[in-house]
Specification:
Length: 54
């Protein structure tokens, strides 16, 4: 009766594994587009400044 009781916590650990993978995959994907937007805005701001000076 003790043997199956030990298997139960092991099953719970497996259920936690996929939960950890989900946030890890979402984090880099959410940061990637955010970084591209900042990079696109940087050259746009420099171009606008050059036009104003001219």
């Amino acid at each position: 009766a003790e043997a199956p009781a030990v298997e139960e916590p092991v099953a719970e650990a497996d259920a936690e594994a996929p939960a950890v993978e989900e946030p890890a995959v979402e984090a880099p994907v959410a940061e990637a587009p955010a970084t591209e937007e900042l990079v696109a805005e940087a050259p746009a701001a420099e171009a606008g400044t050059g036009e104003e000076q001219a």
